[in-house]
Design brief:
Helices cover 69% and strands 0% of the residues. It has 131 residues and is mostly helical. The site of zinc ion has 8 residues, from helix 5.
């Protein structure tokens, strides 16, 4: 057993909070950009269908980035919540310790390496390397 000690948890908590601040800044910048160049205004400015399509694609792309940032923020919040509940660092699937090294690389990890691998194996059929 290698339960996380208080100092390791504190280090991971700081890493999560740092990531959270960076993401929030990015989201704020995206929102500010959205106010400067609202999607509707972009559509009005463009004349032909080709430009219209480009504007739509750009807006979709911005939405996709915002959606991903939102999902990442939720993952970080969930991890911080687990720290608060003293559930952090245990595998969701088998309850084993996820381990400090893995959490340092992926502070939002909710599964141990074995369970994560099993999941990826189940879900990704073409994962077998074809050399
Ligand atoms: Zn596990």
């Amino acid at each position: 057993m290698s339960r996380l000690n208080a100092r390791q948890i504190e280090q991971l908590r700081l890493a999560l909070q740092g990531k959270r601040a960076t993401l929030q800044q990015a989201v704020r910048a995206e929102l500010a950009y959205g106010e400067q160049a609202p999607y509707a205004a972009i559509l009005e400015e463009v004349s032909d269908e080709g430009d219209r399509a480009t504007a739509a694609t750009t807006a979709d792309f911005d939405n996709e980035i915002a959606r991903r940032h939102g999902a990442a923020l939720r993952e970080i919040d969930a991890a911080l919540e687990r720290i608060g509940d003293h559930r952090y660092g245990s595998c969701d699937d088998c309850g084993a310790d996820i381990g400090f090294a893995r959490l340092t690389a992926f502070p939002t990890a909710t599964r141990c390496v074995d369970c994560q691998r099993r999941r990826e194996h189940v879900h990704a059929h073409e994962a077998t390397p074809s050399l």
